[in-house]
Amino acid sequence: MEEIIRRKMSGLKKDIGVFSDRLSELSDTGNGFTQGVGDLVYREMKKIGYNTVTKDRAGNVVGVVKGYKNTSNLALLSHHDMAISTMSGTGVNKFLAGIVTSVFTGALLKNTLLPLEGDLMVCCVPRKDLCSFGIKHLYENSMKKANLKGVILAEPSNYNVYLGSRGKMEYQISVKGKLDNDFLKTKGINMLSVMYPLIQELENLSRTLPVNNEFGSSSLSIKDITFQENDSSGNYREFRIVVDRCFTDSENSNSILKKASMIAENIYSKQDGVVVETSISNGSAKSSEGETMVSDKKSSYWKMENSHPFVTNSIQVLKENGFDPSIGYWKQIITEGSYTCGEWKIPTIGFGGGTEESLYVKNTPLDAESIERSILGKSLIIHRNAGIPSFGWCEDEI
Amino acid sequence: MKSEDLNVLVLNCGSSSLKYKIIKMPEEKEILWGEAERIGIKTAGKPFITHVTGTKRRVIEAELNSLDDAFSKALELIKEDTGEDPSIYFDIFAHRYVHPGKFFSSTSRILGKDIGKLRKTLELAPIHNPSSFSLIEKCSTDYTAVPQYAVFDTTFHKTIPEENRTYALPVKMIKKYDLHRVGFHGISHKYVMEEACRFLGVDVKTQKIISCHLGTGGASVCAIKDGKSIFSSMGFTPLEGLIMNTRSGDLDMGYVLNLMYSRKLSIDETEKILNKKSGILGVYAQSSDLRDVMKNLGKDVKADIAFSMYIKRIRKYLGFYSLLLKKPDIMIFTDSIGISSPLVREQACANLEFLGIRLDKDKNWNYPGGIIDAAGPESECRILILPTNEEVMIAREAYRRHKNDICH
Amino acid sequence: MIFVIETGSEDFKIFKYSKDENVYIKEPVRIKSHILRDDEGFINRINSLLAGSEVLEAVSFRVNFGGDIFREKMLPIDSTFKLRMRELIRNSPLGIPPLLETVSAFEDNFPELPLYAFFETSYFNALPDEERYYAVPMEAPADHDVRRWGYHGIYHQFNSNVLPGEKKIISVVLDKLVTVCSSVNGKPFSINLGCTPLEGIMGRTSSGDLDPGIVFYLMRRYNYSIYRIDTLLKKESGFLGLTGYDLETDKLYELAGKDEKTAFAFRVFENQILKSIGEALSVIGGIDAIVFCGCYADSLKPLIFQIIKNLSFLGISIKALPWPDSPGVRDVSVSGSAVRVIVNSLAWNEIVYQDTKNITPKIHPIHPMARI
User: Fold this and answer.
1) How far is residue C56's CA from residue B38's CA, in Å, rounded to a whole number?
2) At a CB cut-off of 8 Å and minimum separation 6, what does B25 contact?
3) Nearest residue to B397 via CA among B9, B31, B108
4) Which residues pair with B229 in a beta bridge?
């Protein structure tokens, strides 16, 4: 089986090259870019001959390679950023490999004619910061009823099998004082002195966060501090601290928010007329289809068990075919796994070429050899987990 | 008592049984025999030993938690007998040891330095070797004054030519793990070969023989030429070859891999199915005993198929070995089913006249016991019904070896 | 013109038969499978195979697996064919998808063209029950799907009718796989290849008959998965495993005269053939004729000669080599021989062509340009 997969790869090289070039040429940012990527992927999947190709309201493009039964459906997810994240601040090439490899993994499997037990959904998901616009819409409208046996994330793992990532969230602490109250009346350095206790508590907290063996330490960083003479209601002066938090298994978004709330209230609520509010930030975006979407800025921590058959099968097939995969975890980037595994409990692994770190290097070119190797690995993983095996027979025996 | 007389205590153990016999060599006279059963089994019924000397037969319940216990008890009983009758004694131990791997290629005296070698062979026959090994080890520590010999089930098949024992696998693996047809029941096949030629008054070195050891448990067919084994139906393990009570015998590995995939079975589970749940039991389902199958022929479709498959598989080996030997001179049926079932013999030999095999109906169906030639008058091939006696063969081998050792 | 087609995942092979053509040995035209996805390209390519005013009358496909669903040797392909074949995908996951793709291409682009399917397994549906099953527990309903399916039914069925009357015939196909079938009066009684080629005679890279105990031993020693051991047994064993040479059987045979490893491998091979022949003989209780065919029947003539010589004690006498190279079915036994020895150099595609010719309607030959 594996030789058939390898052989058919050579027939796709040219198309992979052309598609990669076209994708790289899309250098715009923002919604125009998202539109461009979605359209390009849609057209390419149609050209390849995926059994069905759809684009939904949130801009997810889904191509399906149909299987013979419905017993082992898998999804292969790649993503593209709807806007360049300030955290990364790099060129657009960083995520294109994932798109190219997932689109052509489907193509390769189709060309081999190797029958699959279930359907393969290849999805290109729009993402913005921590917002889950794309993936949540995809889940509600397609993934939920697809009865998925597993999800493969087309994200960089240096050809290892990655089984989790940290959770991340952004929250805001808003401290308001009534206009007829002295609280926050003075601006300038004195305003800071009012804020200072909270900032210091948060700084202290950031130094005492738990450390996890696989994921490293959790983190807290103050992202933004603002002051308003008049809040939206017109009755309060307000200062606001926006915090970025990364966390692993011992915390979750609720517990973090509660703690932040507690810290702020401890400091300020004894004062008359002061209101303290903590909440998860939210973001909005307009999809390529013109739909306005709103989402909380949070994604869950997730971690798959090493011993899960989806993991062990995948590692086994890679080892048997010239890869040397270890189990690993993403320490920096956030992936759709936070939702597929963290929230919806679908077995999820990540596989791809390149490293997380390389994503932060500007304009890393798309390396053909690495793309092919990544396609090969993904195809092997999919076939081992959902392909109909052929024991005893080779195709050339006849 | 002549100087060449020797009393051999033959020990033949299974996972929960121990058979022992004192055989006086060279007359091959049975002095005493015994069997300990249910060793280490805690369910219904206690362990017990049946101990028979001459006309005296005793059945004794005892706490037999291990083979060591059973062995000690047996020796205790023998000692009591010696006390009453001094002619009951033994000079040497002779153990049946199934598979010695590459460490021993013939019946051998086991000295202290050999224990380590034997220890490395335990996994080669995981049901039988460990039991035999524990007795050998006990003898070497507790009974150092008594010479002990090991007689191997595989030795007779050492003469199988290379092209007959090679599997078409990568050569590197074959060499690394010594993967080749080993063959079993060698003691029995050799015994019946010698007895057949003695019975027919022919020189063993000139005969082409097919020996069918058909037991209620294991079964195998052996092709013998010029006194040497040249093929065996069992292979690297006893799993290959004939259909047995719970073993599948030959089958398609592609089927096995499909089974492991679709039922998500481990190696151990699959091996257990092929060794313990297949064969007659696999097809007939209600029993693993061929005799139960034969009772229901014509009444139960499963019994009919099970019996047909069993017979056909034997016939396939008869056909193959007949071609290999270019028509056999002698065919031998032995062990429990080979001796007790005229139907099996009849069906196995049916329509094989073109290979010179013609069974006499009368002689086959009226077998009186002992050794007989049941071939028809026009049969080119002698067809012997010949009870096996592994204990005598073990004693013979140990005796020959011992004499050899003394002379050198 | 009639096409006889063998499909595969890389390409499909077309054996072209012009009307009343009498050529026996044919080289097929190989066409890469990707053309099946391009309707116009496909039509043009097919047309390019027809010279002048020739019309395509019918296309016959070799189908490697028909299971219990397809019980006839040959079937006109109708609208239910693909659906029924899909039920069998588990048994032949490598063979069926390329077949369906090729059949679809012809159905879609030449809708009026008669298409036929010839099955390699249906001859063996008539095997007696005790030959079809293994001595393994048959608990779950799906287990009954596990049985000896056999292979080379096209050859064996043809060979089983090569002598008139109620004859006991042993048919040996010397091809990439070697199969041995016994038949009486045209009805099959045994076949040595079981579910998969891992039972039977060793092949270029497949192990053939093995002690199952060895496989478990290796899986434990090397910590192999079922997939890895499967690859070992079907792609790294056989002649390749024993000699290290990855060559076709006929090329290896040429080497056997000079290379000891290869000569030894052929001795092992001969043993396995002898085992299969011995089994076949015992099942039918005698022999009237033994027939050799397959793509290596000609190049392995000395091997055939040797095998028969070893069976001479059965009263078989054959003519000395070299045997005449005439095409078709020829008797190479000497006239007093108790057993006829026949070498059949008809390839499977010949047999399929002859059968197709006999059934193809002559009334509406289709011009390939017509497409509705």
Assistant:
1) 77
2) B5, B6, B7, B8, B395, B396, B399
3) B108
4) B224
Q: What is the pLDDT of residues A31-54, one digit of tens each?
A: 667 778 899 999 999 999 999 999
Is A260 in the same domain as A317? no
* A107 and A34 inside one domain: yes
From residue B157, alpha-carbon distances to B106, B154, B164, B179, B248 in Å are 10, 6, 11, 14, 22
DSSP B168-231: SS-HHHHHHHT-S-----HHHHHHHHHHHHHHHT--GGG-EEEEEEE-SS-EEEEEEETTEEEE
pLDDT in tens, C227-273: 999 999 999 999 999 999 999 999 999 999 999 999 999 999 999 99
CA angle B357, C199, B291 (to 5 degrees): 50
Cβ–Cβ under 8 Å, residues C150 and C181 = yes
Q: Can you tell me the distance from the alpha carbon of C323 to that of C292, in angstroms, rounded to the nearest whole number?
A: 13
Helix, strand or coil for residue C118? strand
Would you state the pLDDT for residue B354? Answer: 94
For chain B, the distance separating the N- and C-terminal CA atoms, rounded to the nearest angstrom, is: 23
Tokens at C313, concatenated: 């004690």
The answer to whether position A392 is within a domain reads no
Q: Which of A226, A253, A284 is the last residue of a domain?
A: A284
What is the reported pLDDT for A325? 97
List residues of C whose CB lies inside 8 A of any A CB: 6, 8-10, 34, 37, 64, 86, 89-90, 92-98, 101, 176-177, 195-198, 203, 205-206, 225-228, 230-231, 233-235
pTM: 0.90
pLDDT tens per residue, range A174-204: 988 877 777 777 666 667 788 888 999 999 9
Tokens of A33: 């870019």
- B251 in contact with A, Cβ within 8 Å: no
Token duo for residue A212: 């996890």
CA dihedral sign, ordered C309, C310, C313, C316: negative
Which chains share 3+ C-beta pairs under 8 angstroms with C?
A, B
Give domain status of residue A125, yes or no: yes
What's the CA gap between A48 and C145, in Å, rounded?
Answer: 36
* Domains identified in chain B and CATH numbers: 6-153 (3.30.420.40), 186-390 (3.30.420.40)
Q: Is B153 a catalytic residue?
A: yes
Show the domains of chain C with their CATH numbers: 2-119+350-359 (3.30.420.40), 160-294+298-344 (3.30.420.40)
Given pLDDT bands bounded at 50, 70 and 90, which one contains residue A83?
low
Query: Both tokens of residue A263?
Result: 């810290």
Helices A31-48 & A13-25, crossing angle to 10 degrees?
160
d(CA A136, CA C1): 58
Percent of chain C with pLDDT over 90: 71
Residue contacts between B and C (CB atoms, under 8 Å): 217
Q: Which amino acid would we find at residue C179? A: T
Q: For residues C63 and C118, is the Cβ–Cβ distance under 8 A? A: yes
A151 and A190 both lie in a single domain: no
Taking residue A236's Cβ as centre, other Cβ atoms within 10 Å add up to 22
Number of domains chain A is built from: 2
- E strand spans, chain C: 2-6, 11-17, 29-32, 58-63, 74-76, 115-119, 168-174, 178-184, 187-191, 289-293, 329-331, 340-344
Residue range of the domain that includes A105: 2-165+301-386
| Chain C residues with beta carbon closer than 8 angstroms to that of B235 | 210-211, 213-214
Q: Are residues A96 and A120 in the same domain?
A: yes
Residue A101 near residue A18, CB atoms below 8 Å = no
Catalytic position from the list B81, B153, B329, B360 = B153
ipTM score assigned to the predicted complex:
0.93
% of chain B at pLDDT higher than 70:
99
Residues of C in contact with A396 (CB under 8 A): 8, 176
